[in-house]
Amino acid sequence: MQHFSIHPGQISRSFWRHRQLIFSLIRQEVLVRYRGSILGLLWSFFNPVFMLLVYTFVFSVVFQARWDQSIGGSKAEFALVLFVGLLLFNLLAECFTRAPSLILQNPSYVKRVVFPLEVLPLVAFGSALFHAGISLLVLLLFSCFVFGLPPMTAFLFPLLLLPLAAIALAGGWLLSSLGVYLRDVAQVVGLLVAAWMFLTPIFYPVSIIPAEYQVWMHLNPLSFLVDQARGLLLFGRVLDWFSFFWLTLASYALAWLAFVWFQKTRRGFADVL
Q1: Residue 175 in contact with residue 189, Cβ under 8 Å?
Q2: Per-residue b/e over 136-174, b at no fewer than 16 CB within 10 Å?
Q3: pLDDT tens-digit map of 176-197
Q4: Cα–Cα distance for residue pair 203/86, rounded to 1 Å
Q5: Distance of CA 68 to the CA centre of its chain
Q6: 3-state secondary structure the chain
Q7: Interatomic CA distance for residues 171 and 121, integer angstroms
Q8: How many CA atoms lie within 13 A of 5 on its CB side?
Q9: pTM of this prediction?
Q10: Three-state SS string across 192-222, please?
């Protein structure tokens, strides 16, 4: 039996070795999305602005929704709290929904050329991160216009990308591999992502959930990341370093297991495709 071993440093070495290819593919994905449109990349700015206005109107005016009393009840405050949650969720949701088709849409990478297939989930994450960055810019501009400069804790926000990237890569490697062998994975992931949005405290605070269900809510890693992002960007709360450390550690362990799974299963991609 052939011995199969993957060193823990193989992920970082592969990413570093193919860094130019990764950046080139990310740039290509971003440009292709808006190719042929009149406004081009400006759509990446107008889309989050439009959605921010729509969500503000629907939840603040139509549903008369309000957050907890600790941040007041203005529509602008609710819009910002809501938008922070959607920013993080949309980043992960884009990575997860695209993952099952990453290999299926690029059969030539599998059959005809020697290509580092393991970088495709990182390319998807990089493309989603670009649009999340534009949304973050819209958020900060809106916050400055309404409330003034963001708190100093906002400079810690990029740290949240560490576990977020690991979760996105873990999902990308696992789902892209499964998508090759099981074509129904894309439909299942679409349903689960839709449910995930409402099971994450994006449109409501965890405090309104009955106590016996809150423990299940805290098992959702995105719940912690959304809460910490709001604290850093809006409320001036310092990062919960203890929980952040363990979530980051667990996320990278999960990413490593998913990478091992991907590398083992990729040997059968050509046969299936």
Answers
A1: yes
A2: bebbbebbeeeeeebbebbebbeebbebbbbbbbbbbbb
A3: 999 999 989 999 999 999 999 9
A4: 9
A5: 26
A6: CCCCCCCCCHHHHHHHHCHHHHHHHHHHHHHHHCCCCCCHHHHHHHHHHHHHHHHHHHHHHHCCCCCCHHHCCCHHHHHHHHHHHHHHHHHHHHHHHHHHHCCCCCHHHHHCCCCCHHHHHHHHHHHHHHHHHHHHHHHHHHHHHHHCCCCHHHHHHHHHHHHHHHHHHHHHHHHHHHHHHCCCHHHHHHHHHHHHHHCCCCCCCHHHCCHHHHHHHHCCHHHHHHHHHHHHHHHCCCCCHHHHHHHHHHHHHHHHHHHHHHHHHHHHHHHHC
A7: 8
A8: 2
A9: 0.89
A10: HHHHHHHCCCCCCCHHHCCHHHHHHHHCCHH
CA dihedral for 166, 89, 69, 139, sign (positive or negative): positive
Total number of residues shown for the chain: 273
Q: What is the pLDDT of residues 150-177, one digit of tens each?
A: 899 999 999 999 999 999 999 999 999 9
The amino acid that residue 271 corresponds to is D
- Give the tokens for residue 220: 């959702």
